[in-house]
Amino acid sequence: SWDDSNAAAFYEYNRTHGHAVWGYERGNEPGYHPPGPGGWANLALAVHAADFGELHKILASGFHDDATRPLVLGPNACMPDYLKGLLAFNPAINITTVHKYFCMDVSGSFQNCSFGDVLSPRLASAIASSAKDWVEIASAEPLSLWLGEGPFFWNYHVPITSANFA
Fold this sequence. Notes:
Distance between the termini: 37 Å
Radius of gyration: 18 Å
Number of helices: 6
Shape: elongated
Low-confidence stretches: none
Number of strands: 4
Structural class: alpha/beta
Strand order of the largest sheet: 1-2-3-4
């Protein structure tokens, strides 16, 4: 399970130094990476949900007023089934975050995207379909849904593939 000591120390440092932190985000593509020495270990959904509760308790310890307490964001899921399963455990998340690379929807791979794919009408329908899936999952709980990472290409970030089409 999660060792929250670094998070607690980071939070306490920010609080005691008067840093105004709007929110803390936990997670990075859970359920996507393989377990073991070559990948990141994946947690059981119930454990991951409980860890969000621990982060919420850390934040509540220094802020008794909900209006001034930093928000909890996460899990930066990139797999819809993982997010759906996690949300079933009602984790203490204020804003749900996801990662989505839209060009993969039209090319089938991160590596085979082209500018033609970005300009293709197929991309608009792929984005609409994918966004609808994510929104339906997040709508099961009364949470906002934010795109935490989401350029068109996973490993190729230039203005024509991100900011110009945002």
